[in-house]
Amino acid sequence: VATNGIIAVNEPSKEEEYLSQFPLSFGGIAPFLADLDTTDGRGKVFYREDSSPDVLQLAADYIQQGFPNATFDLRSVVIVTWKFVAPYHVPGEDPTLEDKRNTFQAVLASSDASSYAVFLYPEDGLQFYSAHSKNAEEKIPATVGFSQASTNYFLWIKPGSYNIVANDEESIRNLHESSNSGRRGIWVFEIGSLSNSIVPAKISSSPEFHDEEQYQEVTLKPAVRHHDSMEMSHQQVSYDVPSRRGDQQHITHRAPQSASEGKTPPQFPVQQFPQQYPQVIDVEDIEESEIVFRYHTDAQQTCANNRQQCSIHAVCKDYPNGYCCSCVAGYKGNGRQCVAEGSPQRVNGKVKGRIFVGSNPVPVVFENTDLHSYVVMNHGRAYTAISTIPEVLGYSLLPLASVGGIIGWMFAVEQQGYKNGFSIAGGEFTRQAEVTFLSSNEKLVIKQKFSGIDEHGHLTISTDMEGKIPEIPFGASVHIEPYNELYHSSSSVITSSSTREYTVTEPERDGISPSYTVAYQWRQTISFKECIHDDSYHAVSATQQLSVDSVFVLYNRDEQILRYAMSNSIGPVSDGSADISRNPCYTGTHGCDTNAVCRPGTGNQFTCECSIGFRGDGRACYDVDECREQPTVCGGNAVCNNHPGTFRCECVDGYQFSPDGRTCVGKSVEHAIDHCVMGTHNCDIPQRARCVYAGGSSYICACLDGFSGDGHSCVDVDECQQSRCHPNAFCYNTPGSFSCQCNAGYRGDGFQCVLGEREKTKCQREQEDALASGSSSYQQVPRPIGQFVPQCDDHGNYQPTQCHSSSGYCWCVDRNGNEIDGTRTGPGIQPPCLSTAAPPVVIGPSVRPDSIPLPPGTHLLFAQSGKIEHVPLVENSMKKTDAKALLHVPDRVVIGVAYDCVEKMVYWTEISGPSISRASLHGGEPTTIISTDLGSPEGIAIDHLGRNVFWTDSHLDRIEVARLDGTQRLVLFNSDLVNPRAIVTDSVRGNLYWTDWNRDAPKIETSYMDGTNRKILVKDDLGLPNGLTFDTYSSMLCWVDAGTKRVECMNPSQLGRRKVLEGVQYPFSITSYGKNLYYTDWRRDAVVAVDRTISKENDNFQPYKRSRLYGITTAFAQCPQGHNYCTVNNGGCTHLCLATPQSRSCRCPDNTVGVDCIERN
After folding, report:
1. Looking at the Swiss-Prot or TrEMBL record, what is one Pfam family this protein matches (predicted)?
2. Is pLDDT at 776 greater than 50 in this prediction?
3. In the structure, what pLDDT confidence band is assigned to residue 260 with cuts at 50, 70 and 90?
């Protein structure tokens, strides 16, 4: 018995030789192998052999529960208890770890025919799951498992077989909640029999008892006095076990102290109560010769307080010992996660690794590599792509198709009576696979974690690979024959192993393409949470066969993409001769509609049946509009919304769902008065102050910019007294504002003035050159006939309409003086041209949103899965009859949308690539401007004056900026961000705003566009601030919050927030136009319009095809008036010009090499 959490079956080697190593060369049983510390009173280890009837009966009960068909006659058991042991502590490590202690127990029981091991873990869990080792620099997770000793031959050593139950922190953390015996925290294994292999227990049903509650309190005297305890001085290590849910028996073993201290030794508790109902055993030390067992029923877990644990497409059912979730008809899954039966699925994630290739002593290290998978469920075919994989590694990874094969197992075609991975485990589980290349004994460990379905409806996965693989030459191809793999199921754990081959064909040399075959062995363990109360969950065969064929592997060296594809079906163990496996439903050759289920018949017969909510012959299925066919399906006070395959009821305004979730009842009405709307407030006049509604009947008075006071009385601020202008400029004070003008002999904007005349603009220089071409210092000659002279306005900008003085032709130009195609007119006719430059911004009071004149031709643009749609706006109303798709981007998930009002371009982010793209509203192909070094780009914003694009990346946790063509990228922020999402610009004032929906500390932040002056704007009373918009006309910043279910606004330069609307469902994005705010809602699949002046929803639009709506923005017919310091000549910057309220910063892009870039403020 060793302190490091193992029972050795031979003399153990030195601990520095076996710590952090598994299997063990000397052989051992490991309930928690780690570098443990028992020195200086940090815990003790007790062991004894016990043959008392009570202890033997308890051990027999545990074993019988896990192996109901076993027959055995126990003579004695060995009990080993590690009590309050500590992790090995490294100097300088977190001091709180010094107080962590673990207690666990191992019981060895033998009969004439076989031997068993029982591992027990405490009710309240382990306190640490990994530990530092004296021969390792970093913390190493504990290991739970079994290892046979190596066999020494004359010239070589044969390693013994081994089994790993758990060796990652997540599994170790859940050891006390999981089980393979039906009792939480108790694990039973057959470790010695004729099979010479480790066999885990499988849960069996408990005998039924009729008493609803059975409490007992029994005082027992131990039948056998203890042996002297043994305290050891060297260390131990801790490990984890697969996770599993369910209300099982909690057992706490509080081991008594040694005999020398006058206490009884740790006892293996006597069990004298029926097992049907969940119970807790507390073992307390009392007098020297007594132990008291107190039993009480655990807190009942029911659907009433756990319904949120089930999928929205599942039903919850209560059982005597707990509850279970199960998917409704038409959906597949384990109840916690359900997906539409037959619908294609997407899996997204990241891959990292550290892999040695061949004899190369330097590993290939990569991280943050994208994995995307697409699954055709009706055919069980999974396509997986991993990018970017360097060429030095790409070809050598070709044999590892099972990296994506786990996804094939999840959605394999199910033969009758058998279940694929998603039906068993859902989308939350861990998988650890070990690949051994038999010829070279090289090994690779693959760890994958599935984290469920994300907000976009996609499964998420993380993959970690570490080890060594054989080298495959560049340009070679790999072929993998179809294969079968057996999956063995026990409670919350699935294991499989197989040995198969792959063939490598090397590139042709001298007309010959050499080929060779390599054998490799796969061993994997899948750990998941299982509902143990429903017996139908255990009806699946303990052993199933996964059949994999049509395996395709490819590495594209140009794109550095690794691709795997394979078809999968799950069924009984077969040699391939059975006809059942050839039915078209199982081979994917049925031809049923994607919204249909294939029903196998006899032989090769089958039928196609449309899924619930669809109608047709099975080969072509059409959505049923339940709302039209059953107008009263939702009852009174509710509206019905049709969805593909289903429908949704929503309560009308003033009503909400009752606790039954089906009936709409009236809300309690609060008689609140909005004095700001009613005009019954006592704030100063609107020209000097603003009334801000604060909920209920409260309001706040705040002076406008340029005025000071308490809001009830505001006076003009004389900005000229604050030296706001340049010393060589004159200041003009106006009510609520001011202006600056450089003195004579200086040039500039009044805030910055330098000696000399004002710098000429491009238009003025071209005009001067044209006029000078007809003059000379020596002679005066007329300007050549036909020469064009550009016309400039008072500010030096190009006049929007340019005319040729000789020919009389006129045309429109952009702000750079370039002719706009299609605008040239004949002599004497001037085209209607829009201004190329807006007048300077006026710093002064805001304008009421309902008084803003709205130019015609403005649209709403919003993202819906693989397309961007638009809805025309007429004044303050949506013209829903003219709504249509603007742009199709199939197989993409578009998240954020932004609009450049200057060039009429729409920009968007998409996470399935990931990438950032743009397209013109006038037509033309979309163009991807950024496709590298992106994680999950979501929010996007345009500075139309400075010609820059900003975006957030919620995976890389950073905010970046680039030119509108995607060049000159610069990271603005990469710290203090957790889940950045929405981002907007105030181009005129040079400000940037963004949200971070960090669940622990959500916030809204702001900074200047150059990244300076960063500060938190809002941090209190936020939940999930998803969407954000800034209205240039009213200077209001508004957001939607899916956590607080509110729409709110504020003026960033003033205190106070206004709750515009409460009780919204699940808003995602928001934009503003006129007096309205428009937000997208995931629950309603709609664009919702809110009149912010009266705080009331006034309209909504649901696209014809119902699905989630993502980003939304306003496509203005004309750009808002104003300019910033980057508007003209890029602010004089060589590269990025980033505006600030009073100036601008010239910045160089990241990773600038060999570029003449000048940074300055």
Report:
1. Thyroglobulin_1
2. no
3. very low
